[in-house]
Amino acid sequence: MEFDNILLYKAGSIATVTLHRPEALNALNTATLKELGRAFDAVSADSKVRVLVITGAGDQAFCVGADIKELDKATVKQVDAFMRLGRDVFHKLEAMDLPVIAAVNGYALGGGCELALACDLRTASTKAKFGQPEVGLGNIPGWGGTQRLPRLVGVGKAKEILFTGEMIDAQEAWRIGLVNRVFSPEKLMEATYELAEIIANKAPLALHFAKRAVDLAMDSALATGTMYESLGEAFCARTDDQKEGLKAFREKRSPFFRGE
Q: Most buried residue among 9, 100, 124, 238 by CB atoms closer than 10 A?
């Protein structure tokens, strides 16, 4: 599959999507968003892939958000279509069955921060900077920033980030729960792949149900979430992977899960 603005690479059970517009600090234009949608579809359709990693090319930026150069020339109708495209692509990312890790190597601003928010986990370089600067431009986030950010860091902290438009560094992002782990720039990708490998070695169906149950917890009553959790546990209890997991535990060895 050919792309102009991103790279898609698969190694074993881990796929990597790299935003590859370093000259534009990996800003998102219409072409890039469409390519991301195609890449997410391709990853979802590949049963061999168990974890997706998303990162940005170069050492300056993960993604600085929407491409202002494209928006400056756009009509109101074109801007509306662009925003709907981004929203749909981010929803597609969030809805993927497999775990997704954002490896943030530099600036993650505006739509770039929102892209990271749509992932399940976030690792960051010590050089990373996060922010939602939209209010300083007379606008608000349009790709989930006002919705996903408070779910991660709490309402008060999310409002502070959104209202001030100020950037926060990787350590502060880790402190408030926006980032899961922080590494030196030279260790970021290696450490992220180590984390991805740990996850990829777990039972795929169990990961799917665990992800869905947690996501459901953010939008549903406790009784609804625990009911789904019970159904997921009952389903997993009848899979070959669950039998393999118990057998491996008894035999004191690492399990080999097939996703069956």
A: 124
Task: Please indicate whether residue 223 or residue 55 has the higher confidence score (pLDDT).
Answer: 55
pLDDT at 237 over 90: no
d(CA 210, CA 197): 17
- pLDDT tens, position by position, 5-46: 999 999 999 999 999 999 999 999 999 999 999 999 999 999
Element (H, E) at 174: helix 170-175
Residue 114 a catalytic site member: yes
CA distances from 203 to 119, 195, 225, 228 (A): 19, 15, 21, 18
Active site residue 194: no
Catalytic residue among 2, 114, 172, 244: 114
Coil, helix or strand at residue 232: helix
